[in-house]
Amino acid sequence: MTSEQNKTFDLSASFKAYDVRGIVGETITAEIVEAVGAAFIDVLGLEGETVLVGGDMRPSSPEFSQAFANGAATRGANVQLLDLISTDELYYACGALNAAGATFTASHNPAAYNGIKMAKAGAQPISSESGLKEIQALAEQYLNTGIIPAAGTRGEIGVHDVLKDYSEYLRKLVDLSGSRPLKIVVDAGNGMAGLTTPAVLGDKLLPALPFEIVPLYFELDGSFPNHPANPLEPENLRDLQAAVVKHGADIGLAFDGDADRCFVIDEKGEPVSPSAITGMVARREIARAQAAGEETPVIIHNLLTSKAVPELVAKDGGRAVRTRVGHSFIKAVMAEEGAVFGGEHSAHFYFRDFWNADTGMLAAMHVLAALGEQDGPLSELGRQYEPYVSSGEINSEIEDKAGAVERVRVDFETEDIEIDHMDGSTFNAKDGSWWFNLRPSNTEPFLRLNAEAKDQATMEKIRDRVLALVRA
Question: What is the pLDDT of residue 6?
């Protein structure tokens, strides 16, 4: 590797709290990636060990995978290239093969971006608190000296395809063979679900299930020619909603670019909230754990999910544990509590049987199982899990975020409320009729509002009152 003379590398623009993400050719290049691959081996002490490396359908992913593998092999690790994978395939491989790994993806970010998600053996997450900062510092050192020192023995680089094993593993966790016939529209957004959906839910690698799959944008294309692969934005669901109605389908599924998140649309073309999906899957996982002899299965939910989730968990004999927003918090608490399942308002779903990692496909399979084992439509089934009305997340661009929150606190101090500060500020009406949370973004000048109430009128009244104060 060569370094431009007098150039000082600072990777802080691309190293985030949980992963690496940057603009291809600017803040993430093959040279940088090779140094990160070498540092990954050193920081985690993986010389002589097997390391797994894959990537998504972005044009730069194959080159970056190879560069990372070269850096890792230089430092003495044996690399297995997994080729094209979804992020949850990486977690599967790191868990099933008990090996550390990395995948190249920028999830739902636009085409100009790529990044690296890394995991330790057993799919344990790597964040800025568990090795990522050290990897950044060592990679910068290698880049600034222009030399990656060779280990005693250079590692070997081979190829390992995990798609069939991943698909078989998921099918063992949720048996869909007895489902009633379902017509399913899947919007892969030109992302990795275009590869994993035919493998897991179709008959490409395994016996056919009683499903008719209508594919939308299954062609792997990291330029995202149809719409951004970010189903959290309502406009990116419109094609799926229209297709579900047009084809008379039972359900629609939308995945993000690296397919670790899944969003659900009912037969009327209406979204089923991630909180409702959390409740639906939690009910199934509690029942399964209880059948196996677990007295009080634990379910994790972040503080922005509907309060219907902890209410349902308690009713079904489980124990709900509330956490901050963010996958590193969820995964840590999942491990501490031995939780069977965890869900977030952003459609990340975590499973103990999946090494506490998040997988959109396994969550989708649970929803298909719940729908397929009864005769009613998804709109009726989903309604059981959505007794409250939510505002969704609303961003206000404000420089003085603390001042805005203080204005809200002063205005509401005469109300009969409780305020907690687990993550931002959550205002709870003591009579249970509403709650809202205000969270400052760590990376942008945004204050984020999420509100929920017993009915539409109450939600709108609270939402509009808070926004008027915030934006005053």
Answer: 57
Predicted structure pTM score: 0.95
Same domain, 327 and 292: yes
* Residue 118 three-state SS: strand
Alpha carbons 102 and 90: distance in angstroms, whole number: 7
Q: What value does the mean pLDDT take over residues 43-52?
A: 98
Q: Given this model, what pLDDT does residue 463 score? A: 98
Together in a domain, 119 and 220: no
**CATH number of the structural domain spanning residue 230:** 3.40.120.10
| pLDDT band at 1; cut points 50, 70, 90 | low
Which tokens sit at 460? 């709108």
- 342 SS3 class: strand
Is 379 a residue of the active site?
Answer: no
In a shared domain, residues 148 and 22: yes
Closest CA relative to residue 169, chosen from 192, 151, 196, 194: 196
Which domain, by its residues, includes 346? Answer: 274-383
Distances (CA, A) of 96 to 45, 353, 372: 20, 11, 29
Looking at the DSSP bridge assignments, the partners of residue 80 are: 52, 158
Type of residue at 130: S
Contact 186, 213 (CB under 8 A): yes
Q: Which residues contact 107 (CB under 8 A, 6 or more apart)?
A: 87, 115, 229, 256, 257, 258, 260
In the three-class reduction of DSSP (H, G, I as helix; E, B as strand; rest coil), residue 363 is classed as helix
Instruction: For residue 8, give the nearest of 145, 147, 177 by alpha carbon.
Output: 145
Q: Are residues 205 and 346 in the same domain?
A: no
Backbone angles phi, psi at 327, to 5 degrees: -70, -30
Tell me the C-alpha to C-alpha distance, in Å, between residue 365 and each of 173, 211, 378. 9, 12, 14
- Contact (Cβ atoms closer than 8 angstroms) between residue 407 and residue 467: no
**DSSP code for 94:** H
Identified catalytic residue from 107, 275, 391, 425: 107
Structure tokens at 89: 């395939």
Within a domain: residue 6? no
